[in-house]
Amino acid sequence: MTYRVCFVCTGNICRSPMAESVFRARVAEAGLEERVRVDSAGTGGWHEGEAADPRTVSVLEEHGYGTEHVARRFEPSWFGLLDLVIALDRSHLKALRRLAPTEEDARKIRLLRSYGPEGGDDLDVPDPYYGGRDGFEECLEMVEAASDGLLAAVREQLEGRAA
Question: What residue ranges are annotated as transmembrane (predicted)?
Answer without folding.
Answer: none
